């Protein structure tokens, strides 16, 4: 049986909970550098595949916030089971020369906010609608608690318009963001970024 290499060992540590994130630099080097997230921007996704829209969104959000951008890939997600190790390495390879990436096992943004305290998350309007849907939290109280946790971890969201349900939606079209939570969500102006896919 082959011994795991350095990168695989990092992944084993992440999966077993010994690390809560791994940083992979733009050259593909794995490390567990301690990052101060207060001046960062995180674009989370499954990146299956990474496409021009992701890269453009990262550029626009970076210009808007003047923060250091990171792509973030979770080895788990809220719907699907854990991604296979081969699949993780396959997706990571897409980022070589294109940007830094962090790998975590946080499925939802409440969990991500504990890891990346002080960060701004870049999301689409479709995901924003889900984040504000009480059904995922067992009701209104759970939703409120989750968003307050994100606030207390000093995180917030930058929201890009997205085409879904046969219509282009910006943050202003989302009816489910409660007034008391609106401060957590800032819109990326349509004139700066629009992707109808």
TrEMBL record:
Pfam families assigned to the protein according to its UniProt record, in alphabetical order: CTP_transf_like
Transmembrane segments: none
Protein name: Cytidyltransferase-like domain-containing protein
Organismal lineage: Bacteria, Pseudomonadati, Pseudomonadota, Gammaproteobacteria, Enterobacterales
Segments forming domain Cytidyltransferase-like: 43-132
Species in which this protein is naturally found: Photorhabdus bodei
């Amino acid at each position: 049986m082959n011994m795991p290499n350095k990168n695989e060992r990092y992944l084993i540590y992440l999966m077993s909970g010994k690390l809560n994130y791994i940083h992979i630099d733009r050259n593909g080097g794995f490390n567990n550098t301690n990052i101060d997230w207060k001046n960062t921007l995180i674009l989370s996704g499954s990146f299956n595949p990474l496409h021009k829209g992701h890269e453009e969104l990262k550029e626009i959000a970076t210009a808007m916030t003047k923060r250091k951008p990171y792509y973030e890939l979770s080895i788990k997600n809220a719907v699907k089971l854990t991604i296979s190790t081969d699949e993780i390495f396959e997706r990571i390879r897409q980022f070589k020369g294109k940007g830094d990436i962090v790998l975590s096992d946080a499925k939802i943004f409440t969990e991500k906010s504990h890891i990346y305290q002080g960060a701004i998350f870049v999301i689409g309007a479709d995901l924003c609608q889900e984040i504000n849907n009480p059904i995922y939290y067992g009701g209104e109280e759970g939703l409120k608690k989750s968003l307050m946790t994100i606030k207390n971890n000093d995180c917030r969201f930058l929201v890009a318009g997205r085409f879904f349900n046969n219509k282009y939606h910006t943050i202003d079209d989302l009816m489910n963001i409660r007034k008391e939570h609106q401060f957590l969500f800032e819109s990326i102006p349509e004139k700066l970024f629009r992707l109808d896919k």
